[in-house]
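Q: How would the structure tokens look for this protein?
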Amino acid sequence: MRVTADMHYRADPASVFAMLTDQAFQERKVGTISKGAWDVRVQQEGESAVIVSHRTLPPEVVPDAFRAMISTSITITQTEKWGPAAPDGSRNGSIDVELSGVPVRLTGTLTLAPAPDGGCVEQVVGELKAKIPLFGSKVEKAAEPAVRAAIDAEGRIGAQWLAERS
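A: Here is the predicted structure in token form.
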């Protein structure tokens, strides 16, 4: 199942990238959207960056579509890799979201690009796949709202973060 989402920010790509790679921002974001234990690490290598977060969902908050497949909590590992900036400040990256113990994964691309209004847009384009014979598409449809909710939350938290610093 294809998942596409755009997050518009009232800041230039360099400022948004600085936010995305700020350990304190990532801690706020992951801490806000998590329902259980979590950790996040930002590693910058020159112009590039890797952000890895782990979130644990306790069984009582696991979506119904997954409950039959698990006996304990689910750990979500999200890895974002950002490349160097282009001359216009835009960046490309990748995203990989894996759920432990459940054959569901989101893989895709990330783009940070200037917007005509002087802000920028962060775009997520991914494929949500559930490798479950006969029921895969049903599980993908059940997981898609949670994926969108996490993306929407990142956009809201990011907009608030930038507004607090302008």
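The chain has four helices and seven strands.

The first strand starts at residue 2 and ends at 9.

Upvote if useful.
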